[in-house]
Structures are given as structure tokens and as C-alpha cells.
Amino acid sequence: MPGSGRRATGETRVRVRYAETDQMGVAHHSSYILWFEVARTEFVRQLGFTYRELEEAGLFLPVVELQCRFAAPCRYDDQLTIKTRAEAQRARLTFHYEVWREGAAAPAAIGTTVHVWIDRRGRPVNPRHSGVDRLERLYDAMGVGDSRPRGDPAPKSQAGG
Questions:
Q1: Residue 154 forms part of a structural domain
Q2: Is 146 labeled as catalytic in the residue annotation?
Q3: Whole-model pTM?
Q4: 67, 81, 94, 154: which has the fewest C-beta neighbours closer than 10 Å?
Q5: Is residue 53 part of a domain?
Q6: Is residue 51 part of a domain?
Q7: Contact between residue 114 and residue 94 where contact means Cβ atoms under 8 Å apart
């Protein structure tokens, strides 16, 4: 379903720590996965709730796919800004990341993580029908319409006609 066209975006700043680098002083590729996680959890927090609250409500978001493309090295003590954007589709949530070094003209890396909403039993769920009202804010911020499963009737119009 088409959304409203709005996109939820966030920015998170991190500094490359010595422990995240290899012998050459370049950030190890595994560090990017951790930075994506930091950016994702802060992004959700900026929208007004936490992963802990989702889990307490019985909703989980495991990573089912991850991709990262490296364009330029990040080095020890570089200040990074991770720009995060999200897209949602029924039980799937995709986060897009750009890792920017301070003062750089282009991102040092770009990546995505794909997640699936599941319940405590590990079964996929549509978060719109999960009973967690605040998830509506997340989906509205991403410009996602009501992702009703096929066959569900459309809401009845309140207008007379």
C-alpha cells in the first residue's frame, strides 16, 4: 500500500575506538555491524520507544539479512555520523545506513539490515495488529499505510455518501 511519502530518518554519532581497529588502524569490518545496531536502537528511541518495551510487549526483531558496502576506511578516533532510514512492509522492517566520516564528501560505507517482526513463539506477526499502539507512530513516521493482510476488508468510511 502506498504511504504518505514521509520518511523517518535519524542520525547517531560514534567515535571509532581503538579496540574497533585492526593492526593498520582501520576500523574492522565487524565494527560496522555494531555501529548499525547502535544507530538502529537510537533511531527507535528517537521515535519514542525502546527495544526493551517491544520485547516486553512480546515483539522481537531478529536480523534476517545484512549487507554492507565499504567505500573508504574509517580510522581510529574518526568521528562518524550514521544516518539511518527505515522502510516497513507488513512483518518486515528494513533499515538503511550511511556511515559518514566528519568532513567527508561521501559516505565511508552504506548498508542495510532486514528484520522480521516475530512473537514470543518465533512466528511472524504484523505489528499493526500486535496491540502495541505506539508502533503506529513508527509506521506513520515511515509513511507506511495500514498494511492489512490481503483479504482484510478496508475500514468503513466515516463520511456519509
A1: no
A2: no
A3: 0.80
A4: 154
A5: yes
A6: yes
A7: yes
Q: What is the CATH number for 69?
A: 3.10.129.10
Hunting for cell 499493526 — which residue is that? 128
Residue 126 belongs to a domain: yes
Selected catalytic residue, list 22, 77, 119, 152 = 22
Range of the domain at 78: 9-141
- CA separation for the pair 26, 18 (Å, rounded): 9
Can you give the chain as a three-state secondary structure string?
CCCCCCCCEEEEEEECCHHHECCCCEECHHHHHHHHHHHHHHHHHHCCCCHHHHHHCCCECCEEEEEEEECCCCECCCEEEEEEEEEEECCEEEEEEEEEECCCCCCCEEEEEEEECECCCCCECCHHHCCCCCHHHHHHHCCCCCCCCCCCCCCCCCCCC
Write out the three cell numbers for 126. 504484523
Structural domains of the chain, count: 1
Closest of 142, 122, 125 to residue 44, by C-alpha: 142
The single-letter code of the amino acid at 25 is G
